[in-house]
Design goal:
Blueprint lengths: L5 H14 L11 H17 L4 H13 L11 H13 L4 H13 L9 H13 L5 H15 L6 H14 L5 H19 L2 H4 L1
């Protein structure tokens, strides 16, 4: 029987974390979200022709980037980094810094400190801005209401969504080229819905 690769081990580890944790209320930051970011990271890695080692770092970070949400909503990126460090010790010490640099970049307002971090931040941002925006924003709104008791009126939520889409920034050449047009299109669609929320 062949040994599992590191990425296979990471998949099994993170899958078990989600399966063994109460994820009620994680309507946006769900296991499905993690799977989407992993797949988007693999696609990005292939598209920009990352090396095998770079791909490993990026996809590892994708697997671990939101595990912090399983125990906290406050500074969850820091918790994700802590959990990643613990998972990679002692056999993969050399991967801790590049992987956690990528995870740190997913924090709102954080400027990526490496090219790989920029790609992960961009695919994570794109999940909530470039694709099924109405669906993902509604999922996030529901998550906030259930887990943080933050309730927004339709008009307030609409204004927040427009402001968010107007400020979305991508940092990698891949993200800028692939996702910016999709976000602009979503903004146009969302602005056209204004009459529905007045």
């Amino acid at each position: 029987m062949s040994q599992l690769s590191l990425l296979e081990k990471a998949e099994n580890y993170v899958t078990e974390l989600f399966q063994n944790t109460n994820t009620a209320g994680l309507y946006y930051h769900s296991f499905s979200h993690t799977l989407s970011i992993v797949e988007a990271s693999r696609i990005a890695a292939e598209s920009v022709k990352l090396s095998e080692k770079e791909t490993e770092v990026l996809v590892l970070a994708a697997w671990f980037h939101d595990v912090g949400y399983l125990s906290t909503r406050v500074e969850h990126e820091a918790k994700s980094i802590e959990m990643t460090q613990n998972a990679l010790k002692p056999n993969y010490i050399d991967l801790i810094e590049p992987v956690t640099t990528c995870i740190a970049a997913t924090k709102v307002g954080e400027i990526p400190k490496s090219n790989l971090a920029a790609i992960l931040k961009d695919v994570d941002t794109a999940f909530g801005s470039a694709y099924n925006y109405v669906q993902t924003s509604n999922s996030y709104r529901k998550e906030l209401s259930v887990l943080e008791k933050k309730i927004y009126s339709d008009s307030d939520w609409y204004s927040m969504c427009v402001a968010f889409l107007e400020k979305v920034t991508f940092y990698s050449e891949y993200g800028i080229e692939r996702f910016t047009p999709l976000v602009k299109k979503n903004l146009e669609i969302y602005l056209a819905r204004e009459e529905c929320v007045k």
